Fold this protein.
Amino acid sequence: MVVLQQFRFIFKSVKKHFRWVEEETGVSGSQLWALAQIAAAPGLRVTELARALAIHQSTASNLVDRLVQRKLVRRDRSSTDQRVVRLYLTQRGQTVVSKAPRPFEGVLPDALMRLPHADLRNLDALLAAVAQLMRVRDASGRRTPLADM
């Protein structure tokens, strides 16, 4: 089962990268990706962050809570609409991002983004077929950051 070996190789590489990121920065892979997204677009809203990370909004909100607690991110409420909260890196958050290993999003998302679109569509169809054969019924994992699995 060469394909199974490929899956093992990919999973091990992903885990190894996340461990390395955490050792180098003190933050998880998903936290680093969130920090990098906020650094690239200061003033990002939580809904926009969730979309950028392809995670559920409540997951993004919990992620931001942890980053705020660690003083890596600050929330600023709009003076005109208190419902609007913008996210900014603190100096400490900027330091983490500036010293962090690349790719920020992790090795698997980075590789997928570099695949030709047609190959990505084919891979998606094949993985959907595998999931169907596995009788996967709980789709909640679709929006869980890889670093948190």
